[in-house]
Amino acid sequence: MSALERIDQAVKDNPVIIFMKGTPQMPQCGFSSRAAQALMACGEQFAYVNVLQDPEIFQDLPQYANWPTFPQVYINGELIGGCDITLEMYQNGELQKMVKTAMQGKASENA
């Protein structure tokens, strides 16, 4: 499976996912740290991919959604954006609603 196929699979399999440098508990850059903290503050589980552990994903992710930087946050298969957009959405309450709705959709699928 190519890196782009693995990225696509991860985005489709996880209602909320962040591609970041490091992990939510051990971020390796400030932008990834702030975006992950905003997601954690939403109070729902989310998936993550540490792009530093997979050079192919690190190289190919910018092409996937035509977004050149990390982190990248996806909700329900859609690129939300990077750190600035994620924080702005968190501050205006939009991120919490989107994350909650995405996770409720997943719960009803599994019911």
Automatic annotation (TrEMBL):
State the InterPro entries in the record.
Glutaredoxin (IPR002109), GRX_PICOT-like (IPR033658), Monothiol_GRX (IPR014434), Monothiol_GRX-rel (IPR004480), Thioredoxin-like_sf (IPR036249)
Asked if the record carries the keyword Lipoprotein, the reply is no
Q: Which SUPFAM superfamilies match?
A: Thioredoxin-like
Key words, A-Z? 2Fe-2S, Iron, Iron-sulfur, Metal-binding, Redox-active center
Q: Please state every residue range assigned to the domain named Glutaredoxin.
A: 16-80
* Gene3D superfamilies in the record: Glutaredoxin
Which superkingdom, per the lineage?
Bacteria
**Record family assignment:** Belongs to the glutaredoxin family. Monothiol subfamily.
Identification of the protein by name: Glutaredoxin
Where does this protein come from, organism-wise? Candidatus Thiothrix phosphatis
Gene name? Answer: grxD
